[in-house]
Design goal:
The complex is a heterodimer of chains A (586) and B (248). Chain A has 19 helices and seven strands. Chain A has a domain at 429-580: Histidine kinase-like ATPase, C-terminal domain (Heat Shock Protein 90, 2-Layer Sandwich), CATH 3.30.565.10. In chain A, the strands form two sheets. A five-stranded mixed beta sheet of chain A has the order 2-4-5-7-6. By secondary structure, chain A is α+β, with helices and mostly antiparallel strands. In chain A, helix 1 packs antiparallel against helix 8 (152-166), helix 5 runs antiparallel to helix 6 and helix 9 packs antiparallel against helix 10. Chain A is rod-shaped, with a radius of gyration of 67 Å. Chain A starts with a helix and ends in a 6-residue tail after the last strand. Chain B is of the alpha/beta class and 248 residues long. Chain B folds into two domains: 4-125, Response regulator (Rossmann fold); 139-243, LytTr DNA-binding domain (OB fold (Dihydrolipoamide Acetyltransferase, E2P), Beta Barrel). In chain B, the strands form four sheets. A five-stranded parallel beta sheet of chain B has the order 2-1-3-4-5, with helices on both faces. Chain B has a five-stranded antiparallel beta sheet with strand order 11-10-9-13-12, with no helix packed on it. The chains are: A alpha+beta (586), B alpha/beta (248).
Chain lengths: 586, 248
């Protein structure tokens, strides 16, 4: 029976230490950890601290060893390392070694009191009760125990236990009572009652002990346990219940009250069974819970994956749809553009075809003209050679004159062709300047002197020397050349050619007047038309491509001028060119 | 009065021959014909040239423009010039236009056009436009010469040859050592254009070349000039005496 009780005490002892560890030590550890973090940059020590707070004792031991091997200079690192080692070894139940490690800590260590608590606990474990008592006694004298992470109640309990084991029951009793002063929860209360009861029972003070046992038993009975949720706490409760009941059974047995003892025994066994069952159930429940959690987790994962998959699919669908939409819009836009362009192209093609046809026609007429000119020259040359052989020198001069006029005509045609091409491609130099109309007319007319003489035409340039106009010199010369050319071409021999100006608001109207064939109103309007390039031959003996007049109109337009024709069939023609006036500055 | 010296830069012989004939018929003096850029440079710097006629294309490349650009880089040595071209190509013209003053002659050209182009080039170069065409004036004044229109063509007179100028209304009598002739130019213009260090007014009607003064007789209001000419010195222009370098 005594043995049973002793073993029971041992159990309680460890329980007490355990409670001390759980409640206050966590606070202590975190305080130490904070301290270690602040002060040191030592890697090994940091790791040791982390493992320590995680209660990974083996790793803590390894890293503290590493730290200490490097023999760090800071005292605090050394002390803390020894402290870590001591605590770790104590937890590994290597008590002797733990005691050694604690012994290495210097006296100025911040948590030296706590070291003493551990040393006390070690000695208690090693059954060196006197030594343990000396440690504990020192601690009880310290003020302000809460701030030093000390639980006085537990301290007293431990002291009581020491005395109890030494058989000093009086001291033990006083310390138990002291410890009872502190507030305790029901479980601790039961523990205390049991301890006290055991104390008295050991001294054979049965009448004092038995009420305590009963108190403990009743208290343990009162605690109800929720059967479905089975936690660590419940397990502790059942344990108390079983111990209290077992104690009652032992008490009753000693009093030879065997029936009651048997009932308690049975109850005790029931508790033990429940405890075991509970343990198993707890384990099973735990497993089930884990399994359920795992399954749930799996399901959740699966659903999550499914959701993700769905989301990706949906997103893909949206992307594809939007891309398609954009493509559709773009293609639609381009299609419209294309239709538009096609329209433009079709219209352009039509105009181009028209222009090309006109050009072809022009080419055929020009080449026809040139061909006839060259042919005339050819036959004339043949006659020239004949006359040269027969030494008919008089005829030679006439023929040469004729040849020269043919060449002049062809040259004019070619010149117009070149200028027309330059105008169309806009490659020619064009620069509007202030020009003196009189001089330009003189220059152009100078080339026609032989022709005028040949046709016996009189020419009069009565343009005012003050007539200043804004025009491009070369294009104006082309205009004048063509007008004079036409005037001479359509003049009858002994006719008169006159060039003069009339002043209007913004223009100088240059008039080239001949007393030639004239033209019908129809021809006149036809000639003034913008597009009229090729007009019918009105006069059988005089060829005309219309290129000259077309050039004249274009050039005048380019010089910001106006063009008009006045004519009377059979009497003559007035070609009127209106050019921008420039007022004389001087 | 002297003939005007023309330098022709033209690689086509028929063209240059025609041009020479035309110019000489109109009393111009052709000092040379260059057929390449280098030749043109040599002639330009070795001969006394009054005006140049430059073909834009020499041997197929527009070296004529390069030549014009070269001679205009030194403003003191620059002379009036006329571009000669058969092409109306805009790009060539745009480049040629950058050489100022720009005047050009398009082939085929007739006599009137050539003479007109030369006159225009001289007018533009000396910045005295509308001179030769009008009836009011007929003389352009450069730093060294008077360019005077005589009939269809131009003549020149060295300013340093002039002894004095007598103004009569719109006319000016120019008296040189050898001859005496009349030009059409306004008095204000001639006073503005003549170098005041060499020419000075002595009377309402007289402008005198200071280098030709032989003697000033203030008591008689008379100036004795070279070639036994003498002009009146009026009270108003007596300051002139200060300008003349006198022995002391």
């Amino acid at each position: 029976m005594t043995l049973k009780l002793l073993s029971f005490f041992f159990f309680l002892l460890s329980f007490i230490l355990h409670s001390q560890n759980n409640n206050i030590e966590d606070k202590l550890f975190s305080a130490i950890f904070e301290k270690s973090k602040k002060n040191h940059s030592n890697d090994d020590f940091k790791k040791a601290s982390i493992f320590f707070i995680q209660k990974n004792w083996d790793s803590t031991l390894i890293f503290t060893q590493k730290t200490l091997k490097k023999s760090p200079k800071e005292k605090s690192i050394k002390n803390l390392s020894f402290f870590y080692r001591g605590v770790s070894l104590f937890r590994q139940q290597v008590y002797h070694e733990a005691e050694n490690q604690f012994g290495l800590i210097s006296n100025d260590f911040e948590f030296i009191n706590k070291v003493q608590v551990y040393l006390g606990a070690i000695n208690l474990k090693l059954k060196k009760y006197e030594k343990a008592i000396s440690y504990y006694q020192k601690l009880t004298k310290l003020p302000n125990k809460e701030s030093l992470y000390l639980n006085e109640a537990i301290l007293f309990d431990d002291l009581a236990l020491c005395y109890f084991f030494l058989g000093n029951y009086n001291e033990a009793e006083s310390y138990f009572k002291k410890s009872n002063v502190y507030e305790k929860d029901t479980l601790n209360l039961i523990d205390s009652y049991i301890n006290i009861a055991n104390l008295y029972y050991q001294q054979y003070k049965d009448n004092i002990a038995i009420p305590y046992f009963k108190k403990a038993y009743n208290l343990s009975k009162k605690i109800n346990v929720d059967k479905k949720k089975f936690s660590e706490k419940d397990r502790k409760i059942y344990y108390r219940k079983s111990v209290a009941t077992k104690n009652m059974a032992v008490v009753e047995e000693n009093q030879k009250n065997l029936k009651k003892a048997l009932l308690y025994r049975k109850e005790y066994e029931k508790y033990i069974d429940t405890l075991n069952n509970r343990n198993r159930i707890y384990e099973v429940a735990q497993k089930e819970k884990e399994f359920a959690v795992a399954t749930k987790q799996k399901e959740v994962d699966f659903l999550q994956v499914q959701n993700e998959l769905k989301e990706t699919q949906r997103n893909n669908f949206i992307y594809i749809a939007s891309i398609l939409l954009v493509l559709l819009l773009i293609s639609g836009y381009f299609y419209r553009e294309k239709v538009k362009t096609n329209h433009i192209i079709a219209a352009q093609k039509e105009t181009l075809n028209e222009l090309n046809a006109t050009k072809d026609k022009l080419f055929s007429i020009v080449s026809h003209d040139l061909r006839s000119s060259v042919n005339a020259l050819k036959s004339s040359n043949a006659v020239l050679v004949d006359n040269l052989q027969s030494k008919n020198l008089e005829a030679l001069e006439n023929l040469l004159q004729k040849n020269s006029s043919i060449v002049n005509g062809a040259y004019g045609l070619l010149d117009n062709l070149l200028n027309w091409a330059l105008l169309q491609t806009d490659q020619g130099y064009f620069h509007i300047d202030t020009l003196r109309l009189f001089i330009i007319i003189e220059h152009v007319a100078y080339n026609y002197k032989p022709l005028l003489f040949e046709k016996e035409l009189t020419f009069e340039n009565s343009v005012s020397k003050k007539a200043m106009i804004a025009a491009d010199q070369e294009s104006l010369k082309i205009v004048l050349r063509n007008l004079l050319d036409n005037a001479i071409k359509f003049s009858k021999p002994h006719g008169a050619l006159k060039v003069y100006v009339e002043e209007s608001d913004d223009f100088w109207n240059l008039i080239v007047e001949d007393t030639g064939l004239g033209m019908s109103e129809e021809t006149r309007l036809e000639l003034l038309k913008d597009t009229a390039l090729l007009n019918k031959k009105e006069h059988e003996d005089v060829l005309g491509t219309g290129l000259g007049l077309s050039l004249v109109k274009s050039m005048i337009r380019k010089n910001n001028g106006k063009f008009n024709i006045e004519s009377e069939l059979g009497k003559g023609t007035k070609m009127i060119v209106s050019l921008k006036k420039v007022s004389l500055s001087s | 009065m002297d003939k005007i010296n023309v330098l022709i830069i033209e690689d086509t012989v028929t063209e240059s021959t025609r041009l020479i004939k035309l110019l000489e018929e109109n009393n111009y003096n052709v000092v040379g014909v260059a057929q390449s850029f280098q030749e043109a440079l040599n002639l330009f710097y070795s001969k006394k040239v009054d005006i140049l006629i430059i073909d834009i294309f020499l041997n197929g490349v527009p070296e004529g423009i390069t030549f014009a650009e070269t001679i205009t880089t030194v403003p003191e040595a620059a002379k009036p010039f006329v571009f000669l071209t058969s092409s109306k190509d805009r790009q060539i013209f745009e480049r040629a236009k950058l050489t100022k003053p720009f005047s050009f002659l398009l082939k085929p050209f007739n006599e009137l056009e050539v003479l007109y182009a030369i006159e225009m080039a001289i007018e533009k170069f000396y910045e005295q436009t509308d001179v030769f065409i009008t009836d009011e004036e007929d003389t352009v004044i450069s730093n060294d010469n008077l360019f005077i229109k005589k009939g269809k063509s131009l003549k020149k007179v060295l300013l340093s040859d002039i002894i004095y100028i007598e103004v009569e209304e719109k006319y000016c009598n120019i008296i040189t050592e050898k001859e005496k002739f009349v030009i059409l130019i306004s008095l204000t213009k001639i006073l503005k254009l003549l170098d005041p260090n060499n020419f000075c007014r002595t009377h309402r009607n007289y402008i005198v070349n200071l280098n030709k003064i032989e003697e000033i007789v203030p008591s008689d209001n008379l100036i004795q000039l070279q070639g036994k000419h003498h002009v009146t010195l009026s009270e108003r222009y007596k300051d002139l005496i200060k300008k003349v370098r006198t022995l002391k």
